[in-house]
Amino acid sequence: MSVDMQNMPPPCVEARELCKRFGAVQALADASLAFTSGRMHALLGENGAGKSTLVKCVMGYYRADSGTILVDGATHAMRSPLASRRLGLGMVYQHFTLVSQMTVAENLVLGRTQVPLAIDWKAEHHALDELMRRMPFRLDPARRVSSLSAGEKQKLEILKQLHLGRRFLVLDEPTSVLTPDEADQVLGEMRKLADASVLTVVLITHKFREVMRFAQDVSVMRAGRVVATMDVATTSVDALARLMFGSNTTIAMAQPSSPATTAGDGYCELRDLRALGDRGTLAVTDASLRVRKGEILAIAGVSGNGQKELVEVLAGQREAESGSILVGGRPYRRTRSEMQRLGVYVLTEEPLANDCVRSLSVAANLALRRYDRPPIAWHGLLRRRVLRQWAERLIDRYRIKTSSPLARIDSLSGGNVQRTVLARELSEDVRLLILQNPCFGLDAVAAAEIRGQIAQARDRGAAVLLVSEDLDEVLELADRIAVMSGGRIVYEVDRANADRYAIGRHMTRSMEAA
Amino acid sequence: MIPASGIGWYGVALAIVGGALRVSTPYLFVSLGEVLTERSGRVNLGLEGTLLMGAMSGFAIGSMSGSPWLGVLGAAATGALMGLLHAGICNLPRVNDIAVGIALFIFGIGLAFYLGKPFIAPRAAMLPALSLAAWSSEPAVRAAFEISPLLLIGIVLAIVLQWAIFNTRFGLFLRMAGESADAARALGRSVNAIRTIATTVGGAFAGVGGAFLSLYYPGNWNEGLSSGQGLMAIALVIFARWSPLRCLWASLLFGGASALGPALQTVGVTSGYYLYSAAPYVLTLALLIYSSSTRHTLAGAPSELSISR
Questions:
Q1: Same domain, yes or no, for A81 and A217?
Q2: pLDDT on residue B137
Q3: CA-CA distance, A216 to A233, in Å (whole number)?
Q4: Tens digits of residue pLDDT in B47-105
Q5: β-strand A66-71 against A74-76: which pairing, if any?
Q6: Are A274 and A470 in contact (CB under 8 A)?
């Protein structure tokens, strides 16, 4: 079906004065934008600037309150995703929509509009081999999706869309889980398809590097409006940043530790740590690490390479199979009294699920580390007034947006839950701070603020273990960088010698070997 | 002619094989039904109730119409209705499938007892028995290898399901709903619709299992008929790791274990009869302990099941 369509130019799509309101929030305010046929168009903006809302209105996932959508010059109502699908518009999501226990071939067959009643796998595999030959990426149809790397999954998502004959493709933050090499390859191939007039590509991103290197057009969004659209060749990173953040916002970068406060003695040490994942297979294999006082050791890696399990073991949420953890030179058994005595604080992934009690108030969640000690505890009783005042101070200091200290924690936005947990974990005498993706989902200003606080904790002499999937964050904050891949620590480098591409290659090393 | 008790341990083995072939049928049907339901991402714990409702309704229709096969169809229809009820309630937002299953388990038993009261005394026309050992002159051997036609249907069903799960549109949709509801939604498929169909068909299977209990030898309806076989069959699915073909082998194993008590009785071991009769329950417990672990989720479990998350 896609063969005869190859001769027609890919669609051009235009949005005119789109408005969309969610409750009190005006997500889109008269946003107008045109995606030219056969071009790669970047949509740049902060979290919450309205990029996703705009695109979802165009794709029919949301209905705009007002405004028009034109495809190849004709107005379309876009009442449902089905409408956009029929016009050949497709979207690749940030979160993969693949079934991981099924094979590549099964996922591609499932993606079709018409799935045959009984499937002739021999013929299907043959047809897929043929298809792969014409595609920019190749994957073995018999492989199980769970064995694919994040980059390969992203490629499979794109293949799924191409297999369906989509000619207008929206990529929603496609590189957030990819290594730099993988990102360059995926975006490079997409650009080639645009240049060959096979596809019109929309790239949603907040990374300037990707815009400058791969896109032809760029639109910047801020607070629900499209503030500018221009040719990438005629602009610069500085100009884009000013448009994106507004001209009067400056973002402070965290400072690396000055040579004067060089790292001290080792405070936390892991020796040959092994842990099993949820499915009973080895998730952390012989991890050995040493975090020194006054330094940030970052563990970089693609999501799903054992970082989650490693942090869970350190937080006391998962048992280790073998190996040992030493804090302050002694074996660390992760009891509450040890955590208090040794100053161990943790922020795990998905803090609402892992670090909070959902049904308790913000104040109670802030007190989880110290409700059993004076002044909040008084002979085994809780002094609610003291707790509340104490919580109010933290809410103030960390600028947590909540209707009241007594509001349930799950009524807060993701960023504010993150701040609440950080306020709790940073409010004490921190000597070992373990963080996983601390700025995930925060806007740039909030992220910079939190990174600043992490750097401050380090400067006060805390040993910081930062587990992050965001390579930019790692390169900004870390004094030393370790790379985790396939459950192992495969590479270690200090800040001075760190190279983005070298780190990226180590992130996928063991996967290629497997 | 040698009496059954005279053939000694050979007789025990024979009785166990015979038991495996006879008793395994309800295990097989219920576990196949549960495989279908769980592969779609839901657990139906109510199948014990469905089994009894199937036994009761199958017997009632069989005895009133005089046709045991009509009874089997009626049992399937009753089972499907029970499955549909489970699915319908679980389709509502924020409803827990385990809790609904337990409620329907109790409901099914109660309803079957209530509606089945008038049928406790009469006898219905029984399903015929097929002999696999017509060649043998030994009556004990002939008796052991007498099987119900429902077992043959069950074996064919297990093989067909095994193939269908991996090679048909329905199978792919079923596994997609069980492995990733998000993916199914992103592809525009209705997860609830898939699960409703799977739970309904699964209920029909369990109903047929019930019909075997009341319409095959000795062919009567009483309240102690199922003795927990519906619940054990659900445990058996975990042991069979959600594979229809492995359900067949596991059902035979459970059938054999159920026959242990009566088999030992034939050679004169009568002390501890009740202990041996408890073999299937002990086996269930042992298998569940063997297959579970605090450290990881069950291997092969569909990711959307509440026990996997």
A1: yes
A2: 78
A3: 7
A4: 999 999 999 999 999 988 889 999 999 999 999 999 999 999 999 988 899 999 999 99
A5: antiparallel
A6: no
Residues recorded for chain A: 514
Give how many domains chain B has, as a whole number.
Answer: 1
User: Residues A418, A435: one domain?
Assistant: no
Residue of A nearest to B298 (CA): A279
Last residue of a domain, one of A192, A221, A245: A245
Task: Identify from A101, A125, A281, A284 which residue to disrupt to test chain B contact, counting B C-beta atoms within 10 A and taking the largest count.
Answer: A101
> What share of residues in chain B are helix, strand, coil (percent, to 5)?
70, 0, 30
Range of the domain at B287: 4-291
DSSP conformation letters of A320-358:
-SEEEEEETTEE----HHHHHHHTEEEE-SSHHHHTS-T
Q: Which residues of A touch B297 (CB under 8 A)?
A: 278-280
- Asked if residue A351 is part of any domain, the answer here is no
* Residue B306 lies inside a defined structural domain of this protein: no
AA identity, residue B144: A
Cβ contacts of B303 on chain A, cutoff 8 Å: 100-101
What DSSP assignment string belongs to A240-254?
A: HHHHHH-TT---PPP
Host domain of residue A490: 259-343+429-513
Q: Which of B173, B188, B297 sits opposite A81 (nearest CB)?
A: B188
Please indicate whether, in this complex, the C-beta atoms of A98 and B297 are within 8 angstroms of each other.
no
For residues A284 and A326, membership in a common domain is answered with: yes
> Are A24 and A200 in contact, with CB atoms under 8 Å apart?
no
Whether residue A472 lies inside any domain: the answer is yes
B241: alpha, beta or left? (left if phi > 0; alpha if psi -120 to 50): left
Residue A253 included in any domain: no
Structural domain includes residue A250: no
A326 lies in the same domain as A398? no
Q: Residue B51: its pLDDT value, please?
A: 95
Summarised one tens digit per residue, pLDDT across range B92-140 is 988 899 999 999 999 999 999 999 888 877 777 788 888 777 777 777 7
CA distance B148 to B214: 12
Is B296 in Cβ contact with A121 (below 8 Å)?
no
Mean pLDDT, residues A184-205 taken together: 90
Give this complex's ipTM.
Answer: 0.83
Please enumerate in sequence order all residues whose Cβ is within 8 A of that of A280, keeping only pairs 6 or more positions apart, or say none: B293, B295, B296, B297, B299
Q: Do B183 and A82 touch (CB under 8 A)?
A: no
The CATH code of the domain that includes A445 is 3.40.50.300
CA distance linking residue B46 with residue B54, whole number of Å: 12
Which of B169, B183, B295 lies closest to A319 in CB terms? B295
Q: What is the pLDDT of residue A259?
A: 44
Same domain for A450 and A381, yes or no, is no
Q: How far apart are CA A254 and CA A452, in angstroms?
A: 5
Report the distance separating Cα A26 and Cα B211, nearest Å.
61
Put simply, the answer to whether A109 touches B172 (Cβ < 8 Å) is: yes
Q: Please count the residue pairs, one from chain A and one from chain B, whose beta carbons lie less than 8 angstroms apart.
A: 65
CATH number at residue B9: 1.10.3470
Domains: count for chain A:
3
Are A162 and A309 part of one and the same domain? no
Q: Is A322 in the same domain as A205? A: no
Do A301 and A413 lie in a common domain?
no
